[in-house]
Design a protein that fits this description.
The chain is an alpha+beta fold. About 60% of the residues lie in helices and about 20% in strands. Keywords: Coiled coil, Signal.
């Protein structure tokens, strides 16, 4: 009878030992089982962040491409404005050079006109010097006419005044200005226009004056005037028009 309590006691100890052995592996496996769950949760939380990053990348790329196109447009506009400014400066420089050349030629023409009477008073000059002076004056007049043509002066339908000019054998430059409607004529002398006298004032009409070199004439030239409507004509006798 005493053996029975002892047997129950041993059996209870064995059962408690088995229970303890079974609970320990379960407690140890619990954290290990929770680790994969946490990893999956962290992985699932990382996926939305990655999607947000990938979604933000295209918008950043589109904004950068738009900014690049805008900058390229500004650069092209700036280049065109710079080119336009250079062209305007070139036009201004060309006009300034044209004005300077015109002024220089006018000064040369004025000097030659003023020095001509003094040259006549000095006496005879060699033919070479006369020819050189004539050539220089011709070149100045040619350059002046070229500049006037380049300046694109307005074209007058019915010009009122005209010019007639020639050189004498002595190298004198004879320049006449006339009014096409009245027939009034002036001669350039000593830097001014001197009105040529009339026997009788001509009527208003259409006139033309011509002048040519005449070596055998005492004046060295001859000049005539004609009324294109009536046919009346005059020749220049000294400083007066004389009718034929």
């Amino acid at each position: 009878m005493r053996k029975t309590p002892i047997a129950f006691t041993l059996l209870a100890i064995l059962l408690s030992g088995c229970n303890a052995a079974q609970t320990q592996p379960q407690s140890a496996a619990g954290p290990a089982a929770q680790a994969p769950g946490e990893n999956s949760a962290s992985a699932s939380s990382d996926q939305p962040a990655a999607r947000e990053t990938s979604a933000s990348q295209p918008s950043a790329g589109s904004s950068s491409s738009g900014a690049g196109a805008l900058q390229s447009g500004f650069d092209q506009l700036s280049g065109r404005l710079t080119l336009l400014q250079e062209q305007v400066l070139q036009i201004r420089s060309a006009n300034q050079q044209l004005l300077e050349q015109n002024q220089m030629l006018m000064n040369q023409l004025d000097v030659l006109t003023r020095t001509q009477p003094a040259a006549d008073a000095e006496g005879d000059q060699t033919g070479t010097e006369d020819q050189a002076s004539i050539d220089q004056l011709d070149a100045a007049i040619g350059q002046l006419m070229q500049i006037l043509n380049q300046a694109e002066l307005p074209v007058v339908d019915a010009p009122r005044f005209g010019l007639a000019t020639t050189y004498t054998q002595k190298g004198d430059w004879v320049l006449l200005r006339y009014d096409r409607t009245t027939g009034d004529t002036w001669r350039a002398e000593y830097g001014d226009w001197q009105l040529i006298e009339e026997e009788m004032a001509p009527e208003a009409s259409a006139y033309e004056v011509q002048i040519t070199r005449a070596d055998r004439n005492t004046a060295g030239y001859v000049a005539v005037r004609i009324d294109l409507n009536s046919g009346r004509s005059w020749w220049l006798n000294g400083k007066r028009w004389q009718e034929y």
